Request: fold
Amino acid sequence: MCVLHSRVVDKRLISEDYRTTKAGFAGEDKVSRFLGEVVLTGKMEIYRNVVMDNTQMDIIVVTPKMICILEVKNMKGEFYFDSTSKQFYRVIDGGKKEGMRNPELQLQRAVRVLQRKFTLRGVHIPVQGLIVFASRSGIVIQPPTLFRSVPIDAMCDTLEEMEAKSNKLLTNEELKKVRHILKRGTYTVHDVGLMERLGIERKEIRPGVKCGKCFAIGMNRVYSTWVCGYCGCHDKDAHFATLQEYQLLFGSETTSRDVKWWLGIDDKYLTSRLLKKCIEKYSGSDKNRIYTLKFEPWRLESFLAFEMRKR
Reply:
């Protein structure tokens, strides 16, 4: 969503979705910081934004004695989990009711998906779940029934209590399997339906190489490097991160023609040279060649950190 927001011409098209995404990331960052205070058995490992079977898991806490999915909500208001209708809503602005996706049902599905993955790989440990409200302006009036919900200030004590009640201890081999499963789901390359859901067409996306220093779009190719016309930054490898953005918006498969459009260049020989270190494989003849881009999400970390800091 951050990449799309930085590239869409009319930002009003996704302003609400962008604010929601930023609030979610801010809540997860806050929870991750608080997790530094929790005292659990053995080494604690934290995984964020894991996606499996089209199910997103905000944060997963792993220790030799416990695996717990944290469903994080960073919202204000009074919250109600209706166990009869399975609906979830909040009351804000002096009495206004607002229906929302039910985090309890989201967490229930996430637990089932992860439990199934572990069972298939021979890892037998109950996957637990906890709903964490990251904003102190959010108060739960009617709590959920399937999982506990806690304010962020009570999260550490709750996790310590949950682990203390566990009578399971994962072996080193099982922990290796857990790491492998979770790391494979840590990044999702491309949300196929994102632009369609938001009603955004390709012509409304601004192409061009993004500066890694000031994050302006439209760096120029001068001899063997990219030059930013805004801050003067010189970067030979700026196209690597820009092609990661392409993947998030359009998928990992591309053509020479699309790469030329995305990077803002006309020279097919230059395009061919730039692609050599950016692709995993290719198929087809020269005229109809399809390239599969390497997935290297770490190249976008500085940009995403910049976006999260923006007001």
